[in-house]
Specification:
With 433 residues, this protein is an alpha/beta fold. It is built from 8 helices and 26 strands. The two termini are 28 Å apart.
Length: 433
């Protein structure tokens, strides 16, 4: 990413009132991210891929329908097709069956008033027909059918030519992330290739002498590095190209090399650990040395120590996220800030996670002055009301709380304790995790 493509961080942060890099509100921090990150000509290079390879990719161009969908008026169900004018004004209508029509094998004759055709779902409507009555509503009597005249209205159960898509109209818009249903829609248009934007290249690594990789023995005071695996999973869901730089030890030379290598190769760099105030935490020092940092503390829980900015290496600039070391804090900050940034940089138009209201099933302790992201389990009670409960211990190191949860309970900056039954904001994991 060329440095000239990114705005000045100073110009971004000075637009905020009460800017304090030591304790930003969540909405202020997110606004800085929104104002700073943007697609560039380099990250939006277009490539053409086979339809199977387009899943999870960002559309580079509008997909214009080359055909009408459906291509002709057709039946919406199995039944009998006839002219709506044939419906009797008396209690019962009787029609004579003159043929059959199937999907892919249409009835080719003309249907006159008082006549009908046995028709299957998807079959082209015969000439003279504009109405279909479902087969379960008729009585069959040899070559005739009888049904209550009030059971159907003229025009019922007919799908019109171009009802789903008109020839020449946009089927999917540029910026959309291709989902499984979109694959079917694209295929239904007879298109086998799709123009998509280049995958964003994202590098990540963990920092800390205490970290061990899977398969290594745990020395006293050491832990297995779980953050790289959760980061890999979260990044995989975003359809980016992933570069894992492994574990970097707590010494300036190793960290400087890791940051430089990652910035030279990637559009965005994500680290976990090393952004607190410990004596061996060199991350912020190297970040400042190689780039520009907008903030490093946020008034949120979990996830208070988090750095955001950019770093430069070999005439290449990358957006930088220095996430906390605690596993839950890594996931919370990723979904609150990093996810938005990477989608925006990818040129995606769908950026906001799904949010809703739910009743708290129990009281929740909350201190005003910070935004809290509690892990919750969203359910629906017998009356159809959405309720949410916390998953138990909410410590930032309790990764099990994320595995058990299906949502975040977002308690806003100025909120205090939550009473049982009170409405709270909930961000669903569906579409995120």
């Amino acid at each position: 990413m060329s440095k000239s493509k990114l705005p000045s961080l100073n110009s971004v942060v000075t637009c905020l009132s009460d800017y304090d890099p030591e304790s930003l509100k969540v909405d202020q921090a997110l606004q800085i991210v929104k104002d700073f990150v943007r697609p560039s000509a380099e990250t939006l290079t277009t490539e053409t891929v086979e339809i199977y390879q387009s899943l999870g990719r960002v559309l580079a161009k509008d997909i214009i329908s080359p055909i009408n969908v459906p291509a002709a008026d057709n039946s919406a169900m199995d039944g009998y097709a006839f002219a709506g004018s044939s419906i009797s004004t008396t209690d019962k209508t009787s029609l004579k069956i003159i043929g059959k029509g199937f999907a892919g094998n249409a009835f080719t004759g003309h249907v006159n008033t008082g006549e009908c055709v046995r028709i299957m779902t998807g079959a082209i409507m015969p000439s003279g027909c504009d109405t279909v009555i479902p087969q379960e509503l008729v009585q069959l009597d040899g070559d005739d059918i009888h049904f209550a005249s009030t059971s159907v209205k003229s025009g019922d159960n007919r799908r019109l030519l171009g009802e789903d898509l008109k020839e020449g109209s946009p089927a999917l818009l540029a910026g959309k992330i291709v989902r499984p249903s979109d694959l079917g829609l694209i295929a239904s248009l007879g298109l086998g290739k799709v123009d998509v934007k280049r995958r964003l290249r994202v590098g990540f690594f963990s920092t800390g002498d205490e970290l061990r990789s899977i398969g290594q023995a745990l020395d006293p005071g050491c832990v297995y590095d779980s953050n790289r695996y959760t980061l890999f999973g979260m990044l995989s869901r975003l359809g980016v190209e992933i570069v894992d730089f492994g574990v970097v030890r707590d010494n300036p030379e190793d960290m400087r090399r890791a940051f430089s290598d990652a910035a030279a190769q990637c559009d965005a760099v994500i680290t976990s650990g090393g952004v607190s105030v410990g004596e061996a935490d060199y991350t912020k020092q190297i970040m400042r040395e190689l780039g520009d940092i907008a903030f490093w503390k946020i008034a949120m829980r979990p996830g208070r120590p988090m750095a955001f900015g950019s770093i430069q290496s070999k005439d290449h600039q990358a957006v930088l996220f220095g996430l906390p070391g605690n596993p839950v804090a890594v996931m919370v900050t990723f979904y609150q800030f990093v996810r938005y940034a990477l989608l925006a940089m990818s040129g995606a138009s769908e950026l906001a996670p799904l949010t809703m209201k739910a009743q708290a099933q129990e009281s929740i302790r909350k201190r005003p002055g910070r935004t809290e992201f509690q892990r919750g389990i969203l359910t629906s009670n017998g009356s159809g009301i959405n309720t949410v409960s916390i998953t138990g211990a909410q410590g930032s190191g309790v990764l099990r709380s994320m595995s058990e949860a299906n949502c975040f309970i977002v308690l806003e900056h100025d909120q205090a304790n939550i009473a049982a039954g009170e409405l709270v904001n909930v961000v669903l994991f569906e579409g995120l995790l």
